[in-house]
Amino acid sequence: MKSISLKTELSNNAYPGRGIILGKTPDGKKAVAAYFIMGRSENSRNRVFVEDGEGIRTEAFDPAKLSDPSLIIYAPVRVLGNKTIVTNGDQTDTIYDLMDRQQTFEQALRTRTFEPDEPNYTPRISGIMHVENGRFNYAMSILKSNNGNPEATNRYTFAYENPIAGEGHFIHTYKENANPLPSFEGEPKLVETMDDIEAFTNLLWESLNEENKVSLFVRYMDIESGSYETRIINKNRK
């Protein structure tokens, strides 16, 4: 698979929806995780990321304008021991709870399906990073309707063992900005990462559509020690 430019990919798509990037820095020392949200409606745009323990959650920027919290208020990032879970919905909690009971990432997601937001049937995208004793691997998943048909669920899991330094994978909810919104197609896209968390965070944020971007989370985790640093950018600033 040929690597694509994140800057070009994001700049040329006004509405990829929500996106997850997982990978390893070029120097091979850090695991990379990024998650962004976008919105076209007032309800979707009325959000910020806030830290919640080792993870984050979404929160209404203006509670008075929150019309429907069901699919927009959730914890996108949670940490279970040496595992960091990143998703675009409340399946974060499903993965956390069932993996805590010794089930696998795939088994946990077998209990879920795409979002019930007819006519889009937004895919549920999920990722998990496992960092332990200097070793790192990650997996990504997408649960989607069968070409817009809600009678069937298509389930895909992609696992990356011993990731290559400088490489990451990018998955997002929507193929393009349309009505209804067409689901992401194919396997996660191969992208390049950066050693500098500030530079990578700025690249992502500046490449996202100015009108539709809402919030961005980036985390770099040291593969040897497990220590990490996090960046959060919210378009709505308190």
Task: Briefly note the CATH topology name.
Answer: Glutamine Phosphoribosylpyrophosphate, subunit 1, domain 1
> Into which percentage range does the β-strand content fall?
35-45%
The CATH level-2 architecture is identified as 4-Layer Sandwich
Using DSSP, what is the number of strands?
13
Q: Shape from CA axes?
A: globular
Average residue-wise pLDDT: 97
Tell me the strand order in the biggest sheet.
Answer: 11-10-1-2-12-13
Question: Largest beta sheet, briefly?
Answer: 6 strands, antiparallel
The CATH top-level class label:
Alpha Beta
Low-pLDDT sequence parts: none
Helical content, roughly? Answer: 10-25%
Quickly count the helices: 5
Q: Which class best fits the helix and strand makeup?
A: mainly beta
Distance between the termini: 42 Å
- Series of H and E elements: HEEHEEEEHHEEEEEHEE
Round the Cα radius of gyration to an integer and report it.
17 Å
Q: What count of structural domains?
A: 1
The CATH homology group name = Inosine monophosphate cyclohydrolase-like
Question: What would you say this structure looks like, in words?
Answer:
It is a single chain. The chain starts with 5 loop residues before the first helix and ends with a strand. The protein is globular. The longest helix has 11 residues, at 197-207. It has 238 residues and is mostly beta strands. It has helices at residues 6-11, 42-45, 91-99, 105-109, 197-207, and strands spanning 19-24, 30-38, 47-52, 55-60, 77-80, 83-87, 124-132, 135-146, 149-161, 167-172, 189-192, 213-222, 228-234. A hairpin with a 5-residue loop joins strand 1 (19-24) and strand 2. The protein has a single domain (6-234), classed as Glutamine Phosphoribosylpyrophosphate, subunit 1, domain 1 (4-Layer Sandwich).
